[in-house]
Specification:
Elements lengths: L1 H20 L13 H9 L4 H22 L5 H27 L2 H10 L3 H23 L6 H40 L1
Helix pairs in contact: 1-4, 2-7, 3-4, 3-7, 4-5, 5-7, 6-7
Length: 186
């Protein structure tokens, strides 16, 4: 678990360096975080009934892929890649927001990640614990209790899916709206 935390922090630090390495000194860039993109997003009417199915499909695809990868040798590289990517993405995002908006950029970053990343983070941690459990179980071949293992795995799957859905609801209802409201006062 400690190695995964260090990997995520290393990705975050690398992500904060990328805008500097690409010479984005003023924070000028294209996409959603450009002035045009932010202005368009600020004006857009959010439709939760359209956003929720999209967010659920994207988040659950990642969740199911990670869950299934725990049963294969791909599990450790998949989780490692995801944590490195998430760390780098967060680092790039906060760097670009700070370059563009100064200290207000930190608040803008928090609007992007809260409250939905609390449950998403919980799911990721539970996935890592589950992966470590599966790795330990493979090493301890010959240990019985198959019924308990199936119950544990199904329980974890249901809990993680429910927490992931909670994150999707929070992202749909609060996360995007908080980001939009903050942009009006930026």
């Amino acid at each position: 678990m400690f190695g995964f935390i260090l990997l995520t922090l290393a990705g975050f630090l690398l992500g904060t360096l990328i805008p500097e390495l690409l010479h984005m000194g003023s924070g000028s860039y294209t996409g959603l975080v450009s002035l045009y993109g932010l202005g368009q997003f600020e004006q857009k009417k959010l439709e939760p009934e359209v956003l929720f199915p999209y967010i659920v499909s994207v988040r659950l695809q990642i969740f199911i892929f990670l869950w299934m990868s725990c049963y294969t040798p791909l599990g450790l590289p998949a989780h490692t890649g995801l944590l490195l990517w998430l760390g780098m993405s967060a680092g790039m995002l906060i760097s670009i927001f700070v370059l563009r908006h100064g200290y207000e950029g930190v608040l803008l970053f928090l609007c992007c990640v809260l409250p939905q990343w609390i449950p998403y983070g919980t799911v990721i941690v539970r996935e890592i614990v589950f992966l470590e459990h599966k790795i330990r179980k493979k090493r301890a071949v010959g240990v019985g209790m198959a019924g308990n293992a199936v119950y544990y795995e199904l329980r974890e799957l249901v809990v993680m899916a429910a927490v992931c859905l909670l994150g999707c609801v929070l992202e749909t209802v609060f996360g995007l709206k908080a980001f939009q409201v903050f942009l009006k006062y930026l």
